[in-house]
Design brief:
The chain is mainly α. The protein has helices at 4-35, 42-79, 87-114, 122-145, 150-156. It has one domain (4-156).
Length: 158
């Protein structure tokens, strides 16, 4: 039995859920920051609810999806090592490193907001949310076109 299509399917599923988690967690960051400006008791009620929602999203969906997406990606590279010789894969792996850095920065922001430490504005968070979108466009164009340059047209075409 050829495991490639199963591994690729699982990789794609967990990449999708990982990105969904990243998109939604930053939206929850916006809501948490906005709630901090509300009067009591609305402020405390909203902040507690958003903290719970963010915690569940982050640790039940986003982190496990990231780990599984990377695990299945490594298994795909293991069974198709020739990809590591392709320029498009080098560029794609560079974007994956950026995605991991983005994820880890979200972890830092998540931890700060769990402690009610607000260091960013809602406008910053809205812009920050676009970072994942740009990475997603680049990675999808690289994976589909398998060309180290075509991702630029995909990202610029946003």
């Amino acid at each position: 039995m050829d495991s490639y299509p199963y591994l690729k399917s699982l990789h794609l599923i967990f990449v999708i859920t990982w990105f969904a988690g990243l998109f939604y967690i930053v939206r929850l960051f916006v809501y948490q920051i906005e709630a901090s400006g509300k009067p009591s008791p609305e402020k405390e009620i909203l902040q507690n609810q958003f903290r719970i929602m963010a915690y569940r999203l982050w640790y039940i969906i986003t982190w496990p999806s990231a780990v599984l997406a990377i695990g299945f990606a490594l298994s795909l590279l293991w069974i198709t090592p020739a990809w590591l010789q392709q320029p498009w894969m080098h560029v794609k792996l560079g974007f994956v490193v950026l995605l991991l850095a983005y994820h880890l920065k979200c972890q830092q922001i998540f931890s700060q907001l769990q402690r009610d430490q607000i260091r960013y504005s809602t406008n910053f968070m809205r812009l920050w949310n676009e970072g994942a979108t740009i990475i997603l466009f680049a990675v999808v164009f690289l994976a589909v076109m398998k060309n180290a340059v075509n991702w630029i047209f995909g990202v610029i075409g946003i």
